[in-house]
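Please go through this protein, sequence plus C-alpha cells, and consider how the sequence yields the C-alpha cells. Keep your notes short.
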Amino acid sequence: MRCAGIVTYNPDLERLRANLNNTVSQVDAVFIFDNGSENVADIRSLADSEYATVKVEADPNNRGIAFALNRLLDAAKEHGFKHMLLLDQDSVPTEGMCDELERHLTGSVALVCPFILDRNRMTEEEWQAQKMPPLERLTHAAKHGAITSGSLVDVATALEVGGFDDNLFIDYVDFDFNERLILNGYEIVKDNTVYLLHEKGKSERTWLKVPRNTSAGVQWQPLYKLGYSPMRCYYQSRNRIVYWKKYHRHTGGEGLTEIPLLMALSLLFENHRIAKLRAYSRGIHDGMKMKIVEYRK
C-alpha cells in the first residue's frame, strides 16, 4: 500500500487541485499537512468536497517543511502505509509515475525519484529529446540529487534514519535526509523515464552559462535566477553551512561551493539585492555559530 503526503503553505487552489487530480488515482490515500496557511479553510473545503481519500491536518503556525514532512511520515506509519510519495503543493505527478517509481523501491533502495521537469526551464519535448540513461543510482546527495517533491520513500527506512531535520526549516532539508540514507547503506535511484511537473522558485533564465556534468556528459547550461525572498536566501546559506559541518568528512565541499554563486546571481540579476546579500551573510554567520553534531558512521 502506498500513500502521498503534500505540504501546503498558502497554496494556489487551482494548482493544488491539479496536483490532487493527478495524485489520488495513483495512491490509496493523500495526507495534507498545512503550515499555517491563511486559506486553510479553503484547503479543507477543497479536500472534503472533492476527494474522499484526502485528509488535512493543519498547524496554526509555519513550523517549516521538515517538521511537516515528519508529520506526514508519522501519518503514513500510523495508517499502515509502506511507501509514501512526497509532493510540494504545486507539483503535478504524471500519469503512471508512482507505478514506475515503485518498481525500483526494493532491497536496499530506500528512495526513488523521477526526472524533475521545471515549468520555467524545460518543455516536455526537450525532456524527451535528452540523452539520459533510463535509470541512475545517485551517489551524492546534493549533486544532481533527489529533491523532496516527487520522491517515493520507504516509510520505515525514512523513520529509521531519523526522518527530516526540523532545525533546517527549509532548504537542503531533502539533501540532508538523502545523505543520511546513503551513509546508512541505502540507495537512491532516479528514474528518467517519468517526470514530475515542478517549479523551483520563480526561475528566470540569465545570459550566464556554466559547464555542468550531466547524464549526457559535460554541457554548457544557462544559470537561472530564482526570485526567492530574503528569508529564503538566509536559509539557503545557513543550511548549506550546516550541511557541510555535519557531513564534510563524507561529502567534501558540497553545499559550500554554491553560496558564492547564489550571492553573485542575486547581486547581478535580482531585485532587493542589498536585503538578499545581507540575508545570505547573516545565514553564513548563523550557520557557523550553530552547534552541530558531526555525522559519523
The longest strand covers residues 187-198. The radius of gyration is 19 Å. The CA atoms of residues 245 and 294 lie 6 Å apart. The mean pLDDT is 90.
